[in-house]
Amino acid sequence: MLATSIEPHPRCEARARHDRARSHLCVSVVSTGSVWIRPEHIGPTKKNVYLWLLTSHQWTNPLPINAYVVEHREGLVLFDTGQDRAAVTDSTYFPPGFTGFLYDRLNRFPTRR
Predict the structure, then answer these.
(1) Within-domain flag for 47
(2) H-helix or E-strand spanning residue 49
(3) I need a surface site. Which of 33, 41, 47, 74 has the fewest CB within 10 A?
(4) Is there a domain that residue 1 lies in?
(5) What pTM, to 2 d.p., does this model score?
(6) Whose CA is closest to 36, among 104, 113, 100, 112?
(7) Which of 3, 31, 12, 14 lies closest to 70, judged by CA?
């Protein structure tokens, strides 16, 4: 689900009311989607990266793609750490050939039509 507007988290609003005299800082997480990756991405492995990319048959459970909203006395700041939409919608986003084959084995995104 894509976030269309950013609403202050209730905990942040309560902290802001309680902390009016001092500057407050609150961080909220906004999930913008999910991704499946290879388990070797998560933890260290002794396998060579190309070896596990070519041989891994497992995927993790869906993991969130997050953005972070920092609220402070000057306003809101959005840190978008998510995936470029073109990686899902544009078939030419990744390079062709063997490199493209490796990129294709890195992750899976759910698609909505």
Answers:
(1) yes
(2) helix 49-55
(3) 74
(4) no
(5) 0.64
(6) 104
(7) 12
List Cα–Cα distances, 31 to 14, 19, 65, in angstroms.
22, 27, 6
Both tokens assigned to 55: 């041989």
How far apart are alpha carbons 6 and 27 in whole angstroms? 12
Residue ranges making up the domain that contains 33: 10-108
Contact between 32 and 100 under an 8 Å Cβ cutoff? The reply is: no
Share of the chain above pLDDT 90, in %: 12
Residue 2: name the closest of 33, 37, 29, 47 by CA. Answer: 33
pLDDT value at residue 87: 81
Token code pair at residue 37: 């990756």
**Closest Cα to residue 26, out of 69, 66, 65?**
69
